[in-house]
Structures are given as C-alpha cells and as structure tokens.
Amino acid sequence: MFCKNMNNLKNITKTTLSKEWARLDRIDYDYQFKNGEWKRLSRECYNRGNGAAILLYNVERQTVILTKQFRMPAYENNSREGMSIEACAGAIDNNDKPLETIIRETEEEVGYKISEAKLVLTAYTSPGALTEKMFLFVAEYDENMKISKGGGLESEDEDIEILEIPFSEALEMIKKEEIIDAKTIMLLQYVQINKLLIPEKAGI
C-alpha cells in the first residue's frame, strides 16, 4: 500500500557529497523495522531530477524510431555495451512539464516535430540509488513531421544516431540483448501488449 506519511521514519539529515553534474547526497535517517526496532541508517542518493522518454511509432510502416549513443556508465559496467540503443529521452528542466520536455527532446534528438503525445507509464529507473522518475510517452509519426536531421545539441555534447527499425526487429533486439535499456524495453512492450503495432513474428 502506498503511504504518503511514514511513521517509521524520522531524524533525516542530508549531506551533499558531490554537485558537479547532478547532486550526490548521503542521507542519514532513523528507520523502524517491523519488529519495532529503530536503527540509524545511511544511504547515498543520486539526484539528477526527473526525465521523459518517448517511443515514436508508424502504423503503416510498422516501424519505431530509436536512438543510439555512447553511455559511459554502461561502458563502465561492460565495455561492449557502451553504445546504447534507446527511446528518445531527456531530463525535465525545473519549470517544465513532462509533455513539454518530450516534445522539445523529440525535435532536438530525432528531428520530428510532434504536437501531442500520450503518457502511458511512469516508473523509477533505479529506486535504490536514483531519485529519477521517468514519464514514458508514445506518439505516432510520419515523414511529414520530419523537420531536421536531429542528432542532439552540440552545446550539450550530444552525438546521437537516429534509427528507424521495424517493430518486429526491435522486439528481437530485446531477446538478443541488443536493447538493454529499461525505459526502452518498457515502451516497446507497452506497444506490443496494447497492439499499437503488430510484429510479423511472435515477440518476447
């Protein structure tokens, strides 16, 4: 059950450890376990704000738009996985709404101008360490909506390759572990479960 007010949590203190790109905090707190015992605990939380992602899909062509870019944390975990295939996504600025963010990011990253999108899921990406919540959208696209080459902003050091992939192939890429980004897998499976596109072969 979702609890807004937690009576088993008190005396929260926060110490900022780093604030170079996002903010890394150490949070100390008293937590009461189910057996009634209180303990002083400490956790590190990485706060980079919330984000939004979108899967563009074309019903007539049975295709989706994805991106490919280098991700240092993925490379650090496994050097063969540094180039990550993902749905278009971006960080939500302080005063922006998720929809405003994803409309802007869609144009910047993949070059398509959309006026609306459907919010289908919200999810924490790694709630044990990150404060980030992702707002996940879907929207249809066609070639008339293409207004630029995309690729991201040079001012943000983005170097993004745009991929138009058959939906059936994207599902196979999940099975082959060629797509291993969580938000992208969730969006592809949402499209599959809700039959927004019909893959040529049975998916995962």
What would your notes on this structure say?
- The protein contains 4 helices and 10 strands.
- With 204 residues, it is α+β, with helices and mostly antiparallel strands.
- Strands 4, 5, 6, 7, 8, 9 and 10 form a 7-stranded mixed β-sheet that branches.
- The longest helix has 13 residues, at 98-110.
- The two termini are 30 Å apart.
- Belongs to the Nudix hydrolase family. NudK subfamily.
- Its cofactor is Mg(2+).
- One of its GO terms (molecular function) is metal ion binding.
- It catalyses: GDP-alpha-D-mannose + H2O = alpha-D-mannose 1-phosphate + GMP + 2 H(+).
In short:
This protein has 204 residues and is of the alpha+beta class. It folds into two domains: 9-47; 51-193, Nucleoside Triphosphate Pyrophosphohydrolase.
Please describe the topology of this protein.
Elements: E1 9-18, E2 23-32, E3 38-47, E4 51-58, E5 63-70, H1 72-77, E6 83-86, E7 88-91, H2 98-110, E8 118-124, E9 133-140, E10 161-166, H3 167-175, H4 182-193
Parallel strand pairs: 4-9
Antiparallel strand pairs: 1-2, 2-3, 4-5, 4-7, 5-6, 5-10, 8-9
